[in-house]
Amino acid sequence: MKEVLQTGELADGTGGRGLNTASRDDLAEAAAIVLTEDHHVGHAYDFTGVLWTYPQLAETLTRVIGTSVTVHERQERLPGAPGWVEDQVRSGALERQTDDLQRVLGRSATSLEEAVRALFGGPPA
User: Fold this and answer.
1) Is pLDDT at 75 greater than 90 in this prediction?
2) What is the pLDDT of residues 32-61, one digit of tens each?
3) φ/ψ bin of 22: left (φ > 0), alpha (ψ from -120 to 50), beta (otherwise)
């Protein structure tokens, strides 16, 4: 991310597909709830966050940090595990969403904007 802040460019190897990432704080809170409330016993959950794309991330970064961030499509595959993850994203595997996280938390999952603001210390939206 430091390179993105220095260059203003975000390399996207996802082929324009979305990612359903959840914040670490949301996942930790959901885990605590599931582990401490008896009515979750025997249930399985698929915790997914809010779907976002690299262009949406660039727009959010631009808004939060106040510096223009653009996206350029990277055609070459990253080596190792990052390349495997990008392959999964390109196939659409990370676009699947459930409402499990939201239901367990009793609120909406952290948005992309909220997550970026938390990382960069920007004011709440």
Assistant:
1) no
2) 999 999 999 999 999 999 999 999 999 999
3) beta
pLDDT tens digits for range 101-117: 999 999 999 999 999 99
Write the CA distances from 91 to 13, 65, 72, 88, integer angstroms.
12, 31, 19, 5
Residues 14 and 95: their CA atoms lie apart, in Å, by: 11
Specify the residue for token string 């996802």: 14
Q: Is 62 helix (H, G, I), strand (E, B) or coil?
A: helix
Q: How many Å apart are CA 118 and CA 111, to the nearest integer?
A: 11
The total number of residues shown for the chain amounts to 125
Residues 6+ apart with CB under 8 A from 124: 114, 117
